[in-house]
Amino acid sequence: MSRNQQIAIVVIIVIAVGGIAGYMLLFPPAPAEDVIIFGTTDTVEASIDMAQSYDYFGWEIITTLSSGLVEIIPGSEGTADDIRGALASSWTRSTDGKTWDFTLRQGVTFFDGTAFNSSVVKYTFDRNCNLTGTGLQEPDGPQFNMGYADIIHDVELTGTYTVRFNLNIAFAPFLQLMSCAASYMVHPDYAPLSDGDPVTIDYVQYTAGDVRGSHPNGLGPYILTEWDRVGGEDELMRLEANPDYWDYANAPKTEIIIIQFYADEASLTAALTAGDIDVGYRHFTPDQVDSFRDDADYTVWEGPGAAIQYMLFQQTIYPYNETLIRQGIAAALNRTNVAETVFRGTVDPLYSIVPAGMAFHKPSFEVHGEANYTFTVEALDAFGYNATNKLVVELYYESSAHYPSSADQAAVYKSDLEASGVITVNLNNYDWPTYRQQRNAGTMDVFIYGWYPDYIDPDNYGFLPFASWLNLGYNETYPAGGVAQYDLWVEGRSAEDDAGRQAAYYALQDLQAEEVSCIPLWQGTTNCVTVSGITGIILDITLNWRHWLLDWA
């Protein structure tokens, strides 16, 4: 029940005792203003274990239930100057950039009383990143796919409240990496190590009826007290303010947050309109946002975004192993078309895998033009495709509102490609769990994917065209090209100064536009709709959602 629907309920029970009437007043468990109901189309993709979770909503919950050594100041741009201490009170970096020493806050405990100290930090990274060979290193998890073990050599205890990170490389965005959910602390008693059996699932999974045993988190502003799933689909989560939260100055503004899950944008909009929820976040269509914009009962919140959408090729499937074919398809797309028709100008066309506005962005894909059908015809003709023998493209998109307006996007891409006169597009879709399975199986010829930043730095985008977890067959088909991209990416992340980083990232983006393992499509903004009276919404480039700031005016 949302605040708009809540009323003070007083139940009067008359107890007759010896002819004397007694009265008992029963009130709701918490005042209405201490509850906010949050609605979303998101869901936990697999778990909320930092060693395995690699999805937007899973990270949203992890950052609500746990804490990291450092954090990005809300509302900032997420640069190194915008990072403040969290569980670490201070830190220093060696001259060569390969050693980082952190001093930890003292007196911090998990909500069950377990002490936080340097041993917890070491356990967290040894376990999640498998730095000692006895950890976890989940193959589909963030630490594996973000290359934590390539960056961090080991974590060394230098005192009860001091810890040292010895790095393999001088990793420029190390503090940004430490600020992301994959670097948040685990509770050692609830975060198992690997038993060495590759068949056994070692990360913490959802267990019906056992909320505490369903995740390894702690130390966060909220405690998860209820988590309901039916048939593997999330239905409800209940968050209660952590009375032992270490950051008193930023303690939760609202005692209870209830998260309700909805199947799609339409049902989320209906719930907000009906007063069933107080906050709606991800994903409204532009028309839905506009329907609330001029209504005094609602507030539309908007902010910048580093989320991107891109088109991928499965290069083990002919003819997508041919560079010229991929270039021809890239040239046929009209990014302005999808930005203006589907998103009504709320997203911007994107010409690099690194978002515009981020350091070292270069719009290298502009080389292919926009709806450059002359090139498309010439490129495909080299492989025998023409107006009478068209290239048939099986284009896939997800159908469960994991990305915004996926079906409408796909329809525009189909129209763009078919306007070349030499391409026919068949549209296919799967729900999100199946979509991921098919990605892993390598069965989708051409498909649409999205990326939300793990941390705000081009390092976190530049690897996508050859990311192993996307399973594109890229390195197998183009080993020299793949290695070259990888080398440039490593050069950019480990350069000693900004000039060196820029040179490497510019070269990397140019090579990515030449090889076209993926095609950047658009860069989004973010929006949220609340009932009037909700405060504490901060939408910034980090895309971090901060439940603990939500409040009633």
What's this entry about, in short?
The strands form 6 sheets. The chain has a 7-stranded mixed sheet with strand order 10-11-12-3-13-21-14, covered by helices on one side. The chain has a 6-stranded mixed sheet with strand order 16-20-15-19-17-18. Strands 6-7-9-8 form a 4-stranded antiparallel sheet. The chain is globular, with a radius of gyration of 25 Å. 26% of the residues lie in helices and 24% in strands.
Question: What topology emerges from the helices and strands here?
Answer:
Blueprint: E1 11-17, E2 20-26, E3 35-40, H1 56-65, E4 70-72, E5 83-85, E6 88-93, E7 99-104, H2 118-129, H3 142-145, H4 148-151, E8 152-159, E9 162-167, H5 174-179, E10 222-230, E11 233-241, E12 256-261, H6 265-274, E13 279-281, H7 286-293, E14 298-303, E15 308-313, H8 323-332, H9 335-341, E16 347-349, H10 373-381, E17 391-398, H11 406-418, E18 423-430, H12 432-441, E19 446-451, H13 459-462, H14 474-477, H15 479-494, H16 498-515, E20 518-524, E21 526-531, E22 534-535, E23 551-552
Parallel strand pairs: 3-12, 3-13, 17-18, 17-19
Antiparallel strand pairs: 1-2, 4-5, 6-7, 7-9, 8-9, 10-11, 11-12, 13-21, 14-21, 15-19, 15-20, 16-20, 22-23
